[in-house]
Structure formats: structure tokens, C-alpha cells
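Section 4.2 – Deliverable D4.2 (structural model, holo form)

The reporting period included a commitment to supply a predicted holo structure for the target in complex with adenosine-5'-diphosphate. Inputs used:
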Amino acid sequence: MFNKILVANRGEIALRVIRAAREMGIQSVAVHSTADSDAMHVRMADESVCIGPPSASQSYLSIPAIIAACEITGAEAIHPGYGFLSENAGFVQVVEDHGLTFIGPTAEHIRIMGDKITAKDTMRKLGVPCVPGSDGGVPTLEEAKRIGEEFGYPVIVKATSGGGGKGMKVAQNAKEMEKAFKTARAEGQSNFGNDEVYIEKYLTTPRHIEIQMFGDGKGNAVHLGERDCSLQRRHQKVFEEAPGPSISAEERARIGKVCADALARINYIGAGTIEFLYENGEFYFIEMNTRLQVEHPITEAIFGVDLVREQIRVAEGMPMSFTQDDLDINGHAIEVRINAEKLPNFAPCPGRITQYHTPGGLGVRMDSALYDGYSIPPFYDSLIGKLIVHGRDRAEALARLNRALGELIVDGVDTTVPLFHALLQEPDIQSGNYNIHWLERWLETNL
Ligand code: ADP
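Output (C-alpha cells):
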């Protein structure tokens, strides 16, 4: 059993891990930049270490500083949260070389899934259905144009190292290919230091359906159903729900088994998410995230499990605390991402919180690191809170979300809360009738 773990992150996800550790009787160590000295994760952890100046590259991404913080405090394991170093295979290697435990998958699995071409190739060989497209990387514009003709436009050019919606460009026709190809390559190079791209058929009306996975690293893996994350702006999720309103129990069991068999075969350890586009009753793999995701609480709500606790357990070498047969869905959950952003352009809006009041009551969970008088620093992600509601069915979850949003007070900065008030009035949201393009189209005419 670990005595002490270090949380290599900040904000709500750092709190999430500290809470799980405390319930397990494990001490927690927070790390922070100088901009985060007053942050809630620093206050809540048992110990804290300042690891550098505000810039993430010199603090939350500084591998030597984080390893040093472990040595100083005697932490035996590191939980990376999401973002920052969570999918950095080199980091995992360094952690292990120092005799510490990384709470997450192996460096090898992170490396495979972090390169989208290799990930697709691996998944295809494991029997997972993929989006039709190029067979690996596409090195030249001529080749790109040939693939566009072969699969038929529209197609999407994607950087193999891409993430966070960056490095993806759609070509509606042959004329647009040159620009899409060059831009995706340039974005891949400037954001991820890799200009290799591949091409996929661009699906026109899919939903984004992702399957929550969990493995013990010893050949056992289970799925915890799907989340529908189709409501996106610039390929970034803003509203997620589980189960997916369009997925039947039979489809869930079918795709879930394909995914669980695939991860069992590679001895996957810990939490992971296999992302699909879902159109006309078919699933098409797009990528796998080898970490805990922002939207994991909606899965926790409907299955009644603590995914962070499970991550810590399997990292210690313990078995998973459930089998596939133990996992039953109970009700419906929705998460909305509350960002410090000014509508209608979603411009980041850091600043001081003058008043903060969280909603409560049955089926309401607010994961946030805010407090009265806290100043949101301008250096990091604009996510300041996640409001998660759970109801006996979708209608109850929607009503509860509406009620909880009405109770929430975040004064001093602009937030995305008004967006959710407006979305809840929409018949398509009420009925669950939306795909990955719905929100962008709605924003064009409604904000
Ligand atoms: P990232 O790693 O940047 O998040 P993903 O590969 O997960 O990129 O894709 C993010 C989003 O981009 C998807 O949820 C979907 O909305 C859109 N997308 C990706 N691939 C396709 C495709 N082949 N057709 C249509 N939309 C796509």
C-alpha cells in the first residue's frame, strides 16, 4: 500500500485525486507554480512543494522538478491527472527509472496510443473498427489528393501527434486539399513537433461516443459503457452525458466487448478511453486516451464506482474491485464544463472571484477548485469547474441540471454558465437529438 502520493497537476483534477487518496488513508503531496501558491489543491493536500515559475513548461511540465519533489517528500507514486504530463511516455520512463510508480498505463501503451497512426493500426489489428482512410502516414500532397479521390470528399487531414482539436483540417473537395494538407502539417509541427499526417473520411453526421475502459495489467479488462460527448466547440467538449441517448444496451455490450477484449490482449493497466465516431449504427475508432478524462465523473455516477481509487489500487498491484458482471448502469448523468470565458467568443476571462456558491442537493456534484476571493491565474486552462448531475433517467438529470445551474453563483469573472441555461431550452437537447456539428451551427445563430 502506498503511504504517500504526489499529484502532478492543479485545479479540480488535483482535488479529485487528493480526495480519493485521503479516503484510502494515503497522504498527498501537491506541487504548484508560484502563480498557484494560494490554490485550493495546495491548501487541501497534506504537503506541498513549489516547483517553479508560472509558465507550465517550467513548473507542471518540469520533469526534474516533479521528481525532486517526490524525493524531498518521500512520495512513492505520482498521479498525473489529465493534460500536462499525463500522456508523456518519456515522463513515465523517468518516474520508473527513479524507483517511483506512475499511476497510469505503461510508457509503451502511452507511446502507441499517443501516435494516432500507430494507435489506429494497433486497434485495427485488435479487431476494433476504424474510420476508413489512408493506410498510415501521407507524405506528399499528390498522395493526399489521390486518397481524397479514392475515399471521396469530404476528408479530414489529421496530425498523427495531434490533440485538443489541433492539427485537424477538413477538405471538402480536391481544391481545398492543398490548404488542409499544408495547415494540418504546419499545426502538427508547431504544436507537437511532428508534421506527419494521415487522412480519414470526414463523417458528416456522427456522434462522438467514447467507451470508458479499465484494465488490471494482467490480462483482465472491463468497459464501463459510453459517454456521448458530441456537443463540441472547435472539437472541444462542453457537455457530456452517460449513457448515450442513441446507444442501445445491445450496441453497448457489442462495442464494449470488442474494446475490453482488445485491451485485455495488450495487458492494458488503469483507466483509458476509446473514442469513436458513431454514424448509422456503426462505430469508427478515432483515438484512445491513456488517462483519466475530464468527463469521467458521469461514468462514476451511473456505475457507482470511484475510478481514481481503482487507478491507485491497480497501480499498487491489487486487482480491480469489480468484474464486468458487477457493472450495471443506474440512471443517467450529465456534466457541463464551466469555463472562465466570455461569450460569445469564448475569450479566456481570468480574474478574481468575488462570490462563489455551489449548488447542492440530491444527485449534484460540483468538482471545482474555486473559492471566495480566489484569483484565477491567466496561465492555464480556462476550465474552472465541472457540474455533474445524476438522475433516475435522462429527464430527471436534465431537470436537476437546470435546477443546479440556477443555484450556482460565480461572480467576478464571465463563465460559460449562460450557454448551458440557453442550451437546456433547446428541443434538440431536451430530446438528445444532436451530433458533433450541432453546437457549432447553433452558436452561429444563437450567440
Ligand atoms: P483530438 O485528439 O484533437 O481531440 P480526435 O481525433 O479525438 O482529436 O477528434 C476530435 C473531434 O474531431 C471528434 O470528436 C470529432 O468531432 C472530430 N473528428 C475527428 N475525426 C473525424 C472524422 N473522421 N470525421 C468527422 N469528424 C471528426
